[in-house]
Each structure stands twice: as C-alpha cells, then as structure tokens.
Specification:
With about 350 residues, this protein is an alpha+beta fold. It is about 55% helix and about 10% strand. The protein is built from 7 helices and 5 strands, in the order βββββααααααα. It has a 5-stranded antiparallel beta sheet with strand order 2-1-5-4-3. Strand 3 and strand 4 form a beta hairpin. Helix 1 packs antiparallel against helix 2 and helix 4 packs antiparallel against helix 6. It is elongated. The termini are far apart.
Length: about 350
C-alpha cells in the first residue's frame, strides 16, 4: 500500500515583538439560528470569513455574524446599545398596534370626524436616539461609538456594521499607541530603579559576607599560616638569656607551643582570683572588669618574645593575631572554672550542714 506524503504545515512563530498580532480578543456575535447576542473570545471561534464566524464543532457548530470586535468593554457597550435597539423596536411595534386600535375605535364612535390622531414616529425615534446617546456617553466619556438604535429590524446593514467595527478598531489602536509611549517611559524608569536597588542590596550582602569571611580567616590563620613563626623573626637580632620574676627565670618554663607557654606565664605572674576577675590590658573605662597589672604583663610580653625569638618590630602583629585571642579564651575558661568550683563548694557546705543537723 502506497501512502501519499504527509502535508507538513510550518509552525507559526510568536514573539513579544508581535504584541498586536491578535489584539482584537473579544467579538460580539449575533447567531443566525436564534438571533442571540453573545460576547465571545477569539480562542472560542473556530473560523472567521469576512463578517461571518463559526463557533463549535460537528453538530454543535453555529454560524453567527460579527457585530463588533475589540476589548470586552467596547463589545459590552455595543451589546447594550443593540439590546436597547431591540427593545425600542418592539416598543415601536406595540405603539403602532395601539395607534391602529385607537384609530378603529375612533372611526366607529365619530363617523363625522375623519381625523386620525397619530404620534409622529420621527419624534419618538429622535427621543430614543438622544436617550441612547446619553447612556453611551455616561458609560464611556472618552470614546464615541456609533449609534445603532434607529433600527426597527433585528439585523443591521453591512455598511453600518462595518463602519462601527472600523471605528472601534481605529480608536482602540490610537489609544493603545498613545498609551504605549507613556507606558514605555514609565516602565524604563521602573526597570532602572529596580536594577539600582538590586545592585545596592547585592553590594551590601557581599560586604557582609566578606567581613564575616575575613573574621573567620583571621581565626583560621593561626592554625594555617601564622603557625610558622619564621615570618615574625629576624636573623641578626640578639635576645637576652633571662627574664626574671620573683627570683625565677620565666624562660625555663616548658610548654607545648607558644599558646601553652603564654597560659603558664599568666598563671605564674597572676593569682587565680586575678585571672578570674580581670581582662587583658589595656584597661577600658566602659567595661566593668579591671585589667591585669600592666607591669607584670610587660614581663609576659618579654618572656614570649625572647622564648620564641620574635623580632620587636613584628611582635605587636604576632600578639594581635596569634597570642591575644588565645589568652582571652583562657581568661574566659578560668572564670567558668572558678564559677563551677564555687557552686561545688556551696553544695558541699549545704550537705555538711544537713549532716551536722
């Protein structure tokens, strides 16, 4: 079995550069089978041929004439006007019937008088036209829509319908073009402002992260880079052989590293009460705790510098980055130890008092 080649349809490409491709989204349709007016979106219409539209599929397909197209508000205004036109047409028919009955009764009663009292139709139509125009102006003051209330029939001629549709489309495009320029300028300002705000917030976040990273790096440096004390030393510098305190050479104290040596020197120079209730020099007036004795603390600096042969030029940097953070932690730990020891003593005293009682 030989099959015919399949027909391939090229895909339709849509892009944001074609905003007006299907700008007329809503259609006002009058169905041919029951003369019903209905506002339908373009996606619900199967096909459009000139002023005719097909809606539905198969047995449910219906044919309708396009009365207007445009936005929903425009189609709604046309729908109201057409409804008023239908109501006015039915009112005119009723008035004609009443006038005919009145004329017949008048002929029967007054045979001599052949005058028929009829209300001119033009005055009624003009009044109704004015009422419809006023209602349309109240609905939309900025847009002038064509008047279709003068019809007595239920269908509009093609010329009037096409002119109404053209007016609606022209007004919609002019209004959209005028507003597009203003909207583009406002949108550009909003976009630039948002970009500036985002740039500012991103910079602030980066600064915070960089500061926190630098702090963490400074904490990690003693264990990573500055553990090698050679960067703080000089070859030709000569150091003393003794640092005496209370007839004791502090350089003879043994320790694992520079931090352990600093803790042992503090325990030698100060009592446990002084270490638990003081901070490292220099003293600060806004802090409640006093600082350690600066004269003895000078011996602490000298013993560390001489023990590990650190140059006097680089000792301040070495103390700030390596020694001081560890000594601060040591004083905090001493306060915690003393607090726990006091709690234990108080509990022991209470137990002894209970046993004695």
């Amino acid at each position: 079995m030989i099959r015919s080649p399949r027909k391939t349809n090229a895909p339709k490409k849509f892009s944001p550069s074609q905003p007006n491709l299907y700008s007329q989204e809503n259609y006002l349709l009058r169905f041919d089978d029951n003369d019903e007016l209905l506002i339908v979106k373009r996606s619900s219409i199967r096909s459009i041929i000139e002023d005719k539209a097909n809606v539905g599929k198969g047995q449910n397909s219906r044919c309708a004439t396009i009365e207007a197209k445009g936005s929903y508000s425009q189609c709604n205004i046309m729908y109201e006007q057409l409804q008023l036109g239908q109501m006015n047409a039915t009112d005119d028919d009723d008035d004609d019937q009443e006038e005919e009955t009145d004329d017949v009764q008048g002929d029967d009663r007054n045979n001599d008088n052949n005058v028929q009292y009829k209300i001119p139709k033009q005055s009624l139509s003009t009044k109704k036209r004015k009422l419809s125009s006023c209602s349309s102006e109240n609905n939309d003051e900025n847009v002038d829509y064509p008047d279709v209330t003068t019809r007595k029939d239920l269908s509009i001629s093609k010329k009037i319908r096409r002119s109404a549709v053209n007016l609606l489309t022209m007004q919609h495009t002019t209004m959209s073009n005028g507003n597009n320029k203003e909207n583009e300028s406002v949108e550009a300002q909003v976009v630039y402002q948002t970009i500036d705000d985002m740039h500012h917030t991103i910079l602030q976040q980066l600064e915070k992260k960089f500061s926190s990273f630098s702090r963490k790096l400074n904490q990690m440096i003693p264990h990573a880079v500055h553990q090698n004390l050679d960067s703080y030393r000089e070859k030709d510098e000569i150091f003393p052989k003794e640092v005496m305190y209370d007839n004791k050479n502090l350089l003879e104290i043994r320790a694992r590293d520079i931090f352990d040596f600093g803790r042992k020197i503090l325990k030698t120079l100060y009592t446990s009460e002084e270490l638990g209730s003081s901070i490292l020099p220099p003293a600060r007036s806004h802090l409640a705790r006093p600082s350690l004795d600066p004269v003895r603390f000078h011996l602490f600096h000298e013993s560390i510098r001489v023990k590990y042969k650190i140059s006097s030029l680089y000792y301040d940097n070495c103390y700030a980055k390596l020694v001081r953070p560890k000594m601060c932690d040591f004083l905090v730990d001493e306060r915690k130890r003393q607090g726990k020891a006091l709690k234990r003593q108080s509990m022991d005293n209470e137990e002894r008092n209970l046993c004695n009682d």
